[in-house]
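Objective 1.3, modelling of assemblies. Example input:
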Amino acid sequence: MTARDSLEATPRDRGDRAPGDAIEERGLVQGLAGYGLGLALAAGLTAAAFFVAAGHLVWGPAIPMALVTLAVAQMGVHLVFFLHLTSGPDNTNNALALAFGVLIVALVLGGSVWIMAHLNHLHPAMAQMMSMRR
Amino acid sequence: MSAAAHVRATGHGQGGPASKRIVVGYGFWLFLLSDIVMFSAFFAAWAVLARSTAGGPSGRDLFEPPRVAAETALLLASSFTCGLSALATRARSLVWTELALLATGLLGAAFLVLEAQEFAGLVARGAGPQRSAFLSAFFALVGCHGLHVAAGLLWLGTMMAQIPVKGFRATLERRMLCFNLFWHTLDIIWVGLFTVVYLLGAGA
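Predicted structure (tokens):
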């Protein structure tokens, strides 16, 4: 093993940080505080999601959007506090890869829901046409 | 960042390749993102099929919010202890690394037990994956996440066995980095899963 492979990034790596790696300058206490803060925020958002889903806190038709918003917020908390993703220049590659992943996920999810909703919308009309032809 | 530092920045076409830890971590990050894309296909199938109950039970009849809340709490706590194992590895503490990994594994195993109980209960009630398209999509999506957790537990056990034998050498530090990425990503997928499947599915 060369020194290059050791845990701490070598000085020549100042331009990049491995995904998931904490900021080197932070000590043990600060690292612990970061994970603790992430845990508290994530637990709060989870509790809020279950509360919104169960209760009468939010106007009924708005509940799905409220739940999706809370989920996206919690995913952001996980990315920042557990995976240590930042907007800094040493995280450019990591953030760009994530952005591409999010794009594909949005295309797959949004595209599927959109197309199938249209098919369902057209389905009664097609059934009518088929019966008219008979 | 000063201009001089930027010229020598590795991994940007200047200053040579990045160190192995960054290359390995980035490669595993790309794998996890492709795994998330695979999960998005299962999520899309769920979104399309969630109301196709074929006259059978719906999510409102089947899902147990307290069980899902417990599963969520277990997985979130395990994500936290997994982060503690990364801190302990940085601090080169064998005891704390092993303890944090053990806690992560026990919490993950408890999650799997709750999920297996739920699946067994559904199948016993005649609400197995072959009952309706809704239940096929449910078992495929939730089961796929459960399989990932099970694979993560195998990996975790391997790490717990390797670290005391081999010590904190560079290869093991990279494996710990990748395991941490894997486990945190599973929790991110679970956030989408409990929201879309259990909370939205029970209200639909």
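Residues 89-134 of chain A form one domain.
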